[in-house]
Amino acid sequence: MVLESLINAENAESHPFKMFLLGILFSSVGILLSLWIFKDQSSLVAVFLTVFACIPLIYHTIRLEEKKEVEIDSEKKLLKEHSRAITYFVMLFLGFVVSFFVWYLFLPQNLIETLFNTQHATINAINAQVSSISGNAISSKFFLQIFTNNLKVLLFCVFFAFFYGAGAVFILTWNASVIGTAIGSFIRNNLSEYASHIGLAKVAGYFHVVSFGILKYMTHGIFEIVAYFVGGLAGGIISVAVIRRDINGERFKRIMYDSLDLVLIALVILILGAIIEVYVTPRLF
C-alpha cells in the first residue's frame, strides 16, 4: 500500500514531526475519497479510511515497543523509549485534528453538512449533557462526569488495542474528527460574526479567532489524548505478547507490570486533564 510505505516505525519515532504531516495527508486522502465514492456516508467513511492508512504503522510500532519490554532492563529507560512512540502518536493525532478543521473551514456548506453530520450530532449530544448539569458548572459533580466519560474512552482504548492490536487508533481518529469539527465550527461561526462587525480588513482579528478556537479545545484536550495513547499502547503491548505466546514465565509478568505502569500514568494524566477542563478552561475561554 502506498500510504503505509511512506515511513516505518523506527523512522516515525525518530522524526515525530513527519507524523504530523502524514496525519494531515492520511486524513485528507480519507476525506477526499469518502466524498468521491461514499458521499452520503462520508462522515464515518472518512474516519475508517484514515484508520486503514494508519493501522500497519501503528501495529509495527506496538510490536517494536513490546520488543523493547524484553530487551531493556531499566524501567526509567523503558518509559523514555515508550515516550518516543507516544510523541509520534500525538503528532499524528494533531495532524488529523488540523486536517479535519481546515477542511471544515474551506469546504462549501453543503459538503460540510454531509461530511461532518455524525460529528455534529455527537457534539450536540455532549453539549446537551453539559447544559443539563444544574448550578455552577465548576463543581465536583461536573468534574466526576467529565472524568467518568474520559475514563470510559481510556478503557475502550485499552480493550480495543488488546483485542484488535492497533484498534485504539479508530477511537482516537474518531475523537480527532469530533475535535476538528468543534474547532472548525467555532472558528467559522466566530469569523462570520467578526466579519459582519468590523469587515475583512482586520486580519489580526481573524488570527485571534483561529488561535482562540484551537486553544479552547486543545488546552485540556492534549492531556486526554496523551492519556488515551498511553492506554492504547499498554493494551497493544499485552496483545502482541499474547499473540507471540509470551504468556508464561517472568517475561510476561514483566510485560504486564510495565503495561500496568503505563495505565496508571494514563490515569494520572487523565485526572490532570479533567481538572484543567473543569477548573481552568472555563475561566480562560
Distance from first to last alpha carbon? 43 Å
Order of helices and strands: HHHHHHHHHH
Task: Kindly name the structural category.
Answer: mainly alpha
Would you identify the regions where 5 or more consecutive residues have pLDDT less than 50?
none
Summarize this structure briefly.
The protein is an all-alpha fold and 285 residues long.
Describe this structure in words.
This protein is mainly alpha-helical and 285 residues long. It has ten helices and no strands. It has helices at 9-14, 16-37, 42-71, 75-106, 109-115, 117-131, 140-164, 168-198, 203-243, 250-284. The protein is globular and about 60 Å long.
Layout of strands and helices, then pairs:
Layout: H1 9-14, H2 16-37, H3 42-71, H4 75-106, H5 109-115, H6 117-131, H7 140-164, H8 168-198, H9 203-243, H10 250-284
Helix pairs in contact: 2-3, 2-4, 3-4, 3-8, 3-9, 4-8, 4-9, 6-8, 7-8, 7-9, 7-10, 8-9, 9-10
